[in-house]
Request: fold
Amino acid sequence: AAGVIQSPRHLIKEKRETATLKCYPIPRHDTVYWYQQGPGQDPQFLISFYEKMQSDKGSIPDRFSAQQFSDYHSELNMSSLELGDSALYFCASSLGFSRRETQYFGPGTRLLVL
Amino acid sequence: GIQVEQSPPDLILQEGANSTLRCNFSDSVNNLQWFHQNPWGQLINLFYIPSGTKQNGRLSATTVATERYSLLYISSSQTTDSGVYFCAVGNDYKLSFGAGTTVTVRA
Reply:
């Protein structure tokens, strides 16, 4: 079965640089979620999109922005990177219209900021 | 937001042993999922179980929504069961995760 695809899988950036993470949801899924997991921590919700509109927002820094495109893929843009942004970033997808659906997680993008 | 507490924080098992992991949450929810995070960081979805009981091989889970807790049972544990088990709950578009239970299965 098709799964959530994230790219790149690994990314190394310098402080103050920008990064773009991409997420391709499971086919026919209309809702995308982004989570950030710091070292030794649990995943924290950043932002979600349903049918290309922002549906919920968590503790996402102002330096980060995201959007969902017409083909339902999503991109998380991160600017002015800081050392503390080093983390594992997960994208998840679901059929979100009822909000009672399983969220399926991608393999994650491991970002290291030097 | 919803508070999620998992216990125990750490669990060391001998191969073949059985175990129970617990997840307590502070409010009613319409989404509850159990995940296994393997040593490579992948989050594997185990169960979507906002209420009731489900079984999948050696794993089973029960959620008692009225009492705001869920249990994950691991039977006949194997070394490949090692990793962190997360419970995550939600009422809207986001999931709130517990701190996880780190399970180590020794051969």
Remarks:
- The longest strand of chain A covers residues 87-94.
- The mean pLDDT of chain A is 94.
